[in-house]
Each structure stands twice: as C-alpha cells, then as structure tokens.
Design brief:
75% of the residues lie in helices and 9% in strands. By secondary structure, the protein is mainly α. The structure holds zinc ion.
C-alpha cells in the first residue's frame, strides 16, 4: 500500500499484537477525530472494530458466540421466573380462597371442615413460601450472573 501506516495494537482481550496496515491519509484524519467509518471506508469491519474497541477479530468472534449463548440462557431463566411467578400467584389465590372459606366454616362451627380448611391453608402457605423462595433464588442467580458478565 502506498503511503501506508503500520499500526501495532495489542488486543485488549487476548493481548496478542496485531499489525494493522492503514492508509496514511485516513490514519491522519482518524487521529484528528474523523470516525473510523469515514477515515477507513475500504478497511474491513474487523479492522475498524480493532481500532474502536481494541478487540482483535478472533476475540470479537468468540465474544459474539458468548453473547448468543447468554441470550439463550437469559430466555430460559425468564421462562423459569415466569413459572415461579405463576406458581406464586396461584398459591396466593388459593390462600385467599382458603382464608375466605375458613372464616365461613368457622362461622358454621363445623369442626371437621375447619380442620380440613386449616390444613389446606397451611399447605397453600407452604406452597407460596416455596414459590417465593424459588423466585428469590432465581433472581439472585440472575443478578450474580449479570455481575459476573460485567466483570
Ligand atoms: Zn484478541
């Protein structure tokens, strides 16, 4: 390349030294604040990416793969969260129904019925607690994963 500049850059991810051969004119423009797209219209997307983010093509491709995998995992987690919320809402509804039934039954002083309803109330409360703790640990895991992926 006529009037070319060899720019040696270490990838910020794998630290491998990359040599980018760039047109001197574009390089001067870029150093003076012109965007990489304008300064290097003929360079590859990978070369421009290396200039803007400092990530080499190999690392860039690997990161894109990771992002896809993370999206997939996020979808699965969201589904699990939806299920946990549904279970919680259902238990909550059951609890409300049982409580309504319970006060009605108490008014009738039907002991057997009261016992049955009380047992159902305990079961519904336990189901609600389980659903809530499942939802809580799920969100905790999501937050931990987000922190880990930011680090
Ligand atoms: Zn790299």
């Amino acid at each position: 390349m006529d009037n070319a500049v060899n720019l040696r850059v270490n990838c910020i991810s794998c630290s491998k030294l990359q040599t980018l051969t760039l047109p001197a004119g574009g390089y001067r423009q870029w150093r003076h604040g012109v965007s990489v797209q304008e300064a290097f219209p003929d360079e590859s997307a990978e070369t421009r990416e290396m200039l803007t983010s400092g990530v080499c093509p190999a690392c860039w491709n690997r990161m894109e793969g990771d992002v896809e995998e993370e999206d997939e995992m996020a979808d699965r987690r969201e589904e699990a969260a939806r299920d946990a919320r549904k279970a919680r809402d259902k238990a909550s509804d059951e609890l409300a129904a049982v409580q309504a039934e319970s006060s009605e039954a108490l008014a009738q002083m039907d002991r057997e019925r009261v016992t049955g309803v009380k047992n159902a109330l305990v079961a519904a409360k336990e189901a609600l607690a389980r659903a809530e703790s499942a939802a809580a640990s799920f969100f905790k895991a999501v937050r931990a994963k987000r922190r880990a992926s930011k680090a």
